[in-house]
Amino acid sequence: MIEILSASGLVRARASGALVASILRTLRERTTVGTNLLDIDRWAQDLIAAAGAQSCYVDYAPPFGRGPFGRYVCTSVNDAVLHGLPVDYALADGDLLSLDLAVSLDGVVADSAISFLVGSARPAESVALIEATERALSAGIAAAGPGARIGDIAFAIGSVLHGAGYPVSTEFGGHGLGSSMHQDPHVPNTGRPGRGFRLRPGLLLALEPWVMADTATLVTDPDGWTLRSATGCRTAHSEHTIAITDHGADVLTAWRDSPAAPAR
Ligand code: MG
Fold it and tell me: Rounded CA gap, 102 and 16, in Å?
C-alpha cells in the first residue's frame, strides 16, 4: 500500500517527526559511559508515554523477528547495526551506539535513527562510518522531491556508501510510512536512477542508509532480533522521515547537530 497524506495528515506527520527527533536527542544527551541499554529503553518508554504517543515497536512481530519486540527503542552497539534488542549491557567509552525509534502520534508514524560514539573516545574508523551514513542520508534527501523516482534516491545513497569504500546490502532499506510504520514503496540503499515509483506530494518516506565496515553479510543473534556484521566489524545507521512536498522534500525528524560531532 502506498499512502498519500492530506494537508492535515502532513501537519500531524510534522508533529510526529518532531517528537521522534526530540526523544532521540534526549536519549543521546542522557547516554554516557556506564549507561545501561535497559535504562535507554525505559527512558524511551517514559518519553513516548509522556507525549501521548504509541510505540511502534513494543508489539511489533514481523515474520523475520521472534515474537513481539517487547521494547521501545532499538539499541545496536558496535557490530550490531539493525533491530538491536535492548539488553543488560553498560556502555563503554568509544562504543558506537545506533538508536532507532518509531512512534505513532495522532495516527501518523515517524521513524528515525542516529549513530553516535559514547563518551569521549573518537575512533577514526567509527567516525568515518557514521559520517558516511549521514552523508548518504543527505544525498538521498537531496535526490527526493516531486517527480523524482525511488531509484534516484537509491542511487544517491548507494553512490556515497560505495564511494566511501563500503559494501552495500540491499537486505533492509527505507520504506513508505504513514498510518503504519512499514509501507510501500521500498527504498533500497543502492539502485539505478530513473527507475521505480515516482514521488508525489503527500508521500512520507523513511530513508535509512546503514553500513558495515567490511562486509555485506548480516548474522542474527539468538534473541531473533539483533542483526550484526558477520565479521564483527563496526557498523552505523542514519535515518530520517521525509515528506514530499510541492517544492521538494522536508525532513521531519531533523536532529539539531551531527551525532558524529565531538563531545561537548
Ligand atoms: Mg527506523
Answer: 9
260 pLDDT more than 60: no
Looking at residue 6, the DSSP 8-state letter turns out to be: -
H or E element at residue 176 = strand 174-177
Average pLDDT over residues 141-168: 97
| Domain residue extents for the chain | 7-251
Provide the Cα torsion 25, 44, 83, 65; round to 10°: -160
How far does residue 70's CA lie from ligand 1's centre (Å)?
16
Model confidence over 218-227: pLDDT tens digits? 999 999 999 9
The pocket of ion ligand 1, defined by CB under 5 A, consists of: 100, 111, 113, 239
- Mean pLDDT for 167-178 is 96
Q: What's the CA gap between 17 and 101, in Å, rounded?
A: 11
- Give 239 Cα–ligand 1 centroid separation in angstroms: 6
Alpha helices in 110-241 (DSSP H): 124-143, 150-163
Segment 184-189 shows an average pLDDT of: 98
Q: Which fold has domain 7-251?
A: Creatine Amidinohydrolase (3.90.230)
- Rounded to the nearest angstrom, the distance between the alpha carbon of 127 and the centre of ligand 1 is 21
